[in-house]
Amino acid sequence: MKSGPLVILVLTLLLVLLFFISLFSGRVWLPPGDVLRSFASGNDELAAIIVHELRLPRAVLAVLVGASLGVAGAVLQGFTRNPLAEPGLLGVATGASLGAVISIYFGFTSVFALATPLAGLLGALAATALTFALGWGGGSLALILAGVAVSGLTAALISLSLNLAPNANAAYEIMTWIMGSLADRSWDHVWLVTPFIVVGVIAMASTARALDALSLGETQAQSLGIHLTRTRLIILLGTATAVGAATSVTGAIGFIGLVAPHLIRPWVGHQPSRILLPAALAGAVLLLGADIATRLIRFGPELKLGVFTSLLGTPFFFWLVVKLRKTSP
Amino acid sequence: MLGCVAISSYLTSLTVGIAVLCGAAISAFAQSPIPRRVMTLNMCADQLVLDLLPPERITSVTYISHIASDENLAHLAGRVGINYGMAEEVFAQSPDLVIGGDFSAPATQAILKRAGYPLYEMASAEKFEAIREQTLFVGRLLGAETRAQELVAEMEVDLADLARTRPARPISVVAWDGSGIAPGKGTLFNEILNVAGGINLAAEQSDAYMVALDMEELLVTNPDILAYGADLAMPSLRHEPLKHPAIQQRYGDRQIAYPEEQYVCGGPQSSRVARDLRAAMLAVLAEARPR
Question: Which pTM value belongs to this model?
Answer without folding.
Answer: 0.78
